[in-house]
Amino acid sequence: MIYVGIILLCIILAGAGYFFGYRSKGLMRIKYLLDVKARFAKESEGAKRLLVGGSDVLYSFDTDAISAKTKMRTVNFGLNVGLGMGFLLDVARKHAKPGDEIVLCLAYSLYFKPSYDIFAYEYYRMFQKRELRRFSLKQQAYYLLGNLKLNLEYKQKQFDLAKSGAYIHVQGSDFAEQKNKPLVFPDAFGSTAATKDLERFCEECAANDIKVYVTYPSTLYFEEYKTSAYIWQLRDYLLANYDVIGEPWDYMVPREQIFNSVYHVNEQGQAQRTERLLEEIEEQEERSDARAL
């Protein structure tokens, strides 16, 4: 019996040590990226543009080039889809000020996954434990174990990081064949905690003179996306409620533009998406000027 007690005590102590002391390499990387982006945003003297989303944003947009060509400081706030919609919007909320412009480039799963997801839990565990109140005890146990597994499997990839927070010079492809399959969507689009957070965020921005646009992520093209009920219903929802840039299939790319995930483009894909966004920004400005006349 005493041995059982010792084993239980060891398990409890190990769990407490992990909870209070373990630093996930993946989350330390996210924290580093966030700090780089935040510093660049803070240095802005005038209005700035924030590109906000998951890691697809990190790969898709050369924000140094966008800053140079538009003469407006543009910050790549691409982080990780596993943080959830709410976390990513909180980041934008923290760093935007009146007169700024935000482009939300949101991975499809952000609309239907939990608004504060598995990596948000791990971030709060490491840096802001008071925010763990967002999760039920059941969710905390689930995310704690889920992150433990992911931390054991984590392998850090290093890329050149632009001063504005974008990955650059991502060449070639490291795309595993088992990843070459379509994303899985719900049967139908519907209101979620994440979409409600998005609606509140856009209302706040409108009240604070912050312009918000919503666009779609760059992702590997599959024929079935053209007939996906979920994508069509998401499109209709966005068009009815937000200023939308482009169509979903405008940013679906061939395999030669993919690096290591269906959401991660390489240098070739980044160049095309960046150039397209520059054209779209110019078109938006022309429409705004026309409305002002």
Automatic annotation (TrEMBL):
Keyword Coiled coil tagged: yes
Transmembrane segments: 6-22
Keywords, ordered alphabetically: Coiled coil, Membrane, Transmembrane, Transmembrane helix
Coiled-coil ranges (or none): 264-291
Domain of life per record: Bacteria
Name of protein: SGNH/GDSL hydrolase family protein
